[in-house]
Design brief:
This protein is an alpha/beta fold and 232 residues long. It has a single domain, classed as 3-Layer(aba) Sandwich (Rossmann fold). Helices cover 35% and strands 11% of the residues. The chain is built from seven helices and five strands. Strands 3-2-1-4-5 form a five-stranded parallel sheet, with helices on both faces. It starts with 5 loop residues before the first strand and ends in a 13-residue tail after the last helix.
Length: 232
């Protein structure tokens, strides 16, 4: 019997990464899920990541710990306020203060190391160019440059005859299309956490909540998680 194909899946615990993990599973991959405790504002997303991985049958779930608060420079890792109540049309015009310098570059470097060690040639992540907040590391150009570097920088790519691949299946999808796909694949959205704040329930007014709520509204489906803003 052949060994199952393994994939490293970056699983933050949010809507996009959970859907991406379900897509990888549907494509026949055994999931090795990877989350990061990087000094972010709260741990709710880490709890969500573990819960989603278990619900989807992840074979191995790991949390890598490092502290980007040493550098700061982001509302998620520094004493900078998270913006609230922005119009959707504002998002994407400029890089917002919730951008964490180098985050996806760092995450993918860890994922590459993990993939090389466990013999996985495929890395999945849930970045998106359509309904997103203007992050430069959520673009196809970045992924193309990174995977070329990863194959040049690893034993897997230079000696072992392997070819590492990055999959970003959501990159050209709207939030509504992502949600529809996730429902088709039975993603447990009630377990996910997207809010930049770490309260008992999601705030409903940060950029991430607003984009999520917009997606559910456009998909014609109620978001299964509660929000502090009673109008949602």
């Amino acid at each position: 019997m052949s060994e199952p194909r393994r994939a490293v899946v970056l699983l933050s615990g949010g809507l996009d990464s959970a859907t991406t993990a379900a897509i990888a599973l549907h494509q026949g991959f055994e999931l090795a899920t990877l989350a990061f405790d990087y000094g972010q504002r709260h741990r709710r997303e880490l709890d969500a990541s573990a819960a989603v991985s278990q619900a989807l049958g992840g074979r191995d779930h790991r949390v890598v710990r490092f502290d980007l608060r040493a550098f700061g420079g982001s509302a998620l890792t520094d004493a900078i306020a998270v913006p609230h109540g922005r119009a959707i049309t504002e998002m994407g015009h400029d890089i917002p203060v919730t951008y964490v310098p180098g985050r996806n570059l760092i995450f993918l470097s860890f994922a590459t190391a993990y993939a090389e060690v466990i013999g996985a040639d495929d890395i999945f992540l849930g970045i998106n160019q359509q309904d997103y907040s203007g992050y430069p590391d959520c673009r196809q150009e970045f992924l193309d440059a990174f995977i070329q570097t990863a194959n040049l920088a690893t034993k897997a790519g230079t000696q072992d005859g392997r070819r590492l691949r990055i999959h970003a299946p959501l990159i050209q999808m709207t939030k509504a299309d992502i949600i529809r796909k996730g429902l088709e694949l039975h993603v447990p959205y009630a377990m996910t956490w997207s809010c930049y704040e770490g309260g008992e329930i999601a705030c409903g007014t940060c950029d991430s909540c607003l984009l999520r709520l917009k997606g559910f509204a456009e998909a014609g489906i109620s978001d299964p998680i509660p929000y502090a803003n009673a109008t949602h």
